Amino acid sequence: MKVISIALFLILNVFTIEQNDTPFYVEGKCYKGYIFLESTKSHMLDSSFERFTPTKEDVASLESKLKKRIKGINKNEPNQGNGCPIIHRKLNKYNRQYLGYINENGHKIIWVNFIWKKSCPQNWSKEIVTILDGCSHYWNIDFDVEKDSFSEIKVNGRG
User: Fold this and answer.
1) 49 alpha-carbon distance from chain centroid
2) In the Cβ-directed half-sphere of 65, how many Cα atoms lie within 13 Å?
3) Does the pLDDT value for residue 20 go beyond 90?
4) Measured CA distances, 48 to 45, 51, 85, 132, 145 (Å)
5) Is 150 helix (H, G, I), strand (E, B) or coil?
């Protein structure tokens, strides 16, 4: 009876964990954020895309590469300067949200949402934050895990 009780307890706990949609916290040198699960609904992504949950290792790899490449990616500095941060100079001043999807070519893409720490809303750990305008205080980028490349940098307008 004791073995059955333990087995039932473990099965129920595994099921509870898998059904939990709570994003999980990730932190590394110069970054912190939340990884959102594949079950998270988001209007930021086309609903036809299959989803996946990035791992902490995926995020650590992405962040290491972003730190090395951001200056080149951001060479045009859209909506930056004149009171708005220069992204590649202030990369550690942003909180992050990570969301995974599979693109039309079958590649795993991690969409990263960057939110200026000083104006980050309290709900950033629970739902994908959408801010209109705000210049480079808010921006996002895609990272193709298979191609090891960044694309689709989108910086908010000045409004």
Assistant:
1) 16
2) 16
3) no
4) 8, 9, 34, 24, 19
5) strand
